Amino acid sequence: MPLSKIQFRPGINKETTSYSNENGWFDSDLIRFRKGYPEKMGGWTKLSSSTILGVPRSLHTWAALDGSKYMGVGTESKFYIEEGGGYNDITPLRTTTTLGTNPFTTGSSGTGTVTVTAPSHGAVDGDFVTFSGATTTDGITAAQLNLEFEITLIDQNSYTISTAGSASSGSTAGGGSSVSAAYQINTGLNTVVSGTGFGAGQWGGTVTSFSQTTLAGGGINDSVTSITLTSATDFQTASTTISADVTLTSTTITVASATNLPEKGTIKINSENIKFGNRSGTTLSDLSRAQDGTTKATHTSGDTVTYVGVILIEDELILYTGKSTNTLNAGVVRGARGTSAAAHSAGVNVSEAHDFVGWGESASTSATSGSNIRLWSQDNWGEDVAMAVFDGTPYYWDKTLGLSARATDLASQTGASDAPTITRRIMVSGADRHLVCFGCNPINETDQDLLMVRWSSQGSFVDWTPTATNTAGSNRISSGSEIVSAQKTRQEMLIWTDTSLHAMRFTGPPFTFSFSMLANNISIIGPNAVAAIGDRIFWMDRENFYAYAGSIQVVPCTVLRYIFDDINLDQSFKFFAAPNKMFDEVFWFYVSSGQTEIDRYVKFNFTGNTWDIGTLSRTAWVDTGIHDNPRGAGDVSSTNYIYVHENGEDDDGSAMTSYIQSSDFDLAPDGEQYMFMSRLIPDISITDSSADSSGSVNYIIKTRNYPGDSYTTNSTNSVTPTTQQSFLRARARQAALRVESSTTDIAWTLGDLRIEARPDGRR
After folding, report:
1. Which residue among 9, 474, 486, 740 sits deepest, i.e. has the most Cβ atoms within 10 Å of its Cβ?
2. What average pLDDT score do residues 344-354 get?
3. What is the Cα–Cα distance from 496 to 508, expressed in whole angstroms?
4. 93-138 pLDDT, tens per residue?
5. What is the C-alpha to C-alpha distance for residues 680 and 677, in angstroms, rounded to an integer?
6. What is the largest CA-CA distance in the chain?
7. Which are the contacts of 654, defined by CB distance < 8 A and separation ≥ 6?
8. Burial (CB count <10 Å: 0-12, 13-18, 19+), residue 238
């Protein structure tokens, strides 16, 4: 009987039915197409056995002049610099403060739990604090206390830590009078909760505080100015004085005492309400002047400062400055900040709302930190690195200070002038050497403008004040409501808003950069869903895939419907593009429907114009360049590692289950007759790196008689490097081929298929 040669078209195609895609490929996992033929994808190994706190969402590599190779790793909890397989914690500090006398109280006898009294600490659950100066307390030694700990929140004035010690008596206070607490920046979210993230938001504002009670008494009408709560313990009041004059242009305010002042909120000086977005000790910064309809004014040292509390009852914001027991009865302002005074029944929820961000209000650093997952952007400035939290503070790490030194605020660097204090993304422009912030606060303002682009003077990362003799400047993007992403190319920087794409090009004096809109009605699915390879830019939006190389093109995708019909858009901030220039590929890792973490990928080979799909959990990626192999971050049983990809054939020493399955092919013209298959001749190259050279690949023949039938597995044939032919017995109108491997130490490349078959009747 004659042999029939079956040649399959390259690429996975799920845009049609399996039968209509005859002689094509329909499904895959952990394979790639190279020169039109499928092969097993390369394996990966751990970079290091060291683990990382938090899920890495940002990787960036660079090299120092001495040849040292570094990789920045940003998670929702930490920022590390990896060097030689070791992870160095350089997470910036939020504040350092001295606690009161004997701030530690031990728990039960024999346990290591310690309660820390720290008024207005500003921490959230999961934050990290490092103590110094503590003395031995109830059998828990000073060495066991003067360490870094993860915080378990109790309230805004206390939290617990877990030490390695053991209390002798229990319920004993100690620690001494010289305990210093260094708080790292607040941790961020790892998973977007419903109603947050790109393109989402709560109409009327958001509250992220932890203080909540209910309305007591008989409720209130829309005009009362005395409000009784079930409990007002966690609803702050505070009074102090200013320690220095406050002018109309002041960007900070120093108070005599910060007791009971939160890390952010509103104060009243004379008749002016002033919002502050950050408190460090007794210094208030990130100021927004003349709030709540008040007038901006000057104030003299010694003037009274009163904390303005904010509560949210249903849809109404209410201000107050004083309380008596559980009753708010001083400085009560109803229907504040665009809300309306209304009647409320006894028992409704009352939330402490100093961190309220309302519709139409500009976001502050801390106000937005709990809305989206924690994403870092980073770029190297020479040997140093600049990094920023999405909608957070930009930071800078100086290599000369060593790997034990923490990153510090960009605005606090020596010689810093008007540096942004909040941004969405940070990037070095390229050969022209400007540090650029996207979606940042305008000069001389503290509120964030989500369309503002600012850049430093050429060759300086600290000089942000535009003058006639430097190149610092700014520009506001002309369309959209927010910048979502930015990407550096060889010739320009691309900026995506929620509705458009813009180009930012270096032109030199007098304007430094030019801006032009490349396309309207186009966006990007998430901040990291873009990749640059050479002169090409590839990105994913909510409906399509695009490429840019001087002009914008839709990239035809043969698995488009499959991807977008099975995708969790609520987690789109996690989606990211991963270039692999070793094989002319771009991955997009995404969260499938019903999942909350990345579990799938789609991959495009841009030289062969082929697509394939698969399952793999990766959370961040960096391509070759500084290192010979790409690196990817993964989550394995909640333990986070960095993996070196295209390294061997296995999943970190375990077998990879890699497969490709064809669409249906007719065994007789148009499926007119049943055919009897008796033999197949494999065409496959198998590389076995094991000592016994026992690796094999399975050829699986699946058959059915009609497109609506389920497949029947007729034959599984184990193929080794020396297999010449395999025999089978199968009778059907149409068949599909599945090639898979699930053993260690092998790689394979598939060629064409030959099958021996004869007609076997119509019925």
Report:
1. 486
2. 86
3. 23
4. 999 999 999 999 999 999 999 999 999 899 988 999 999 999 999 9
5. 8
6. 104
7. 744
8. buried
Q: pTM of the prediction? A: 0.80
Per-residue tokens: 513:
């950069």
At residue 586, the 3 state secondary structure works out as strand
For residue 530, the Cα-to-chain-centroid distance in whole angstroms is 14
Q: How many CA atoms are closer than 13 Å to the CA of 37, on its beta-carbon side?
A: 12
For tokens 């490097």, what's the residue?
Answer: 721
Residue 357 has pLDDT above 80, yes or no: no
Secondary structure letter of residue 145 according to DSSP: H
Strand partners, 252: none
676, 556, 554: which is closest to 610 by C-alpha? 556
The dihedral built from the CA positions of residue 668, 672, 676 and 682, taken in this order, carries a sign that is positive
Tokens of 371: 């809305």
For range 388-398, the mean pLDDT: 96
State whether residue 28 is helix, strand or coil.
Answer: strand
Asked if 210 and 156 touch (Cβ cutoff 8 Å), the reply is yes
Residue type, 551: S
**Interacting residues of 178 by C-beta distance below 8 A, sequence separation 6+:** 98, 133
> DSSP 3-state assignment of 454?
strand
286 burial class (0-12, 13-18, 19+ CB within 10 angstroms)?
A: buried
CATH architecture for the domain at 3-43+656-759: Sandwich (2.60)
Q: Are 540 and 588 in contact (CB under 8 A)?
A: yes
404 vs 87: CA distance, rounded Å: 11
Q: What is the DSSP letter of 337?
A: T
CA distances from 251 to 274, 422, 613 (A): 11, 14, 52
Tens digits of per-residue pLDDT, 229-261?
A: 998 887 889 999 999 999 988 889 999 999 888
Out of 2.40.30.20, 3.20.20.80, 3.40.30.10, 3.40.50.300, select the CATH number for domain 93-184: 2.40.30.20
Q: Taking 50 as the threshold, does the pLDDT of residue 33 lie above it?
A: yes
Pairing state between β 530-533 and 536-540 = antiparallel
What CA–CA distance (Å, rounded) separates 316 from 622? 47
Could you give the CA distance from residue 567 to residue 192 in angstroms, rounded to a whole number?
Answer: 15
Tell the residue number behind the tokens 């298959």, with chain if given: 677
Residue among 388, 506, 495 nearest 458 (CA): 506
Tokens of 4: 């029939």
Structure tokens at 435: 């540090």
Instruction: Note if the bond before 420 is cis, omega within 30 degrees.
Output: no
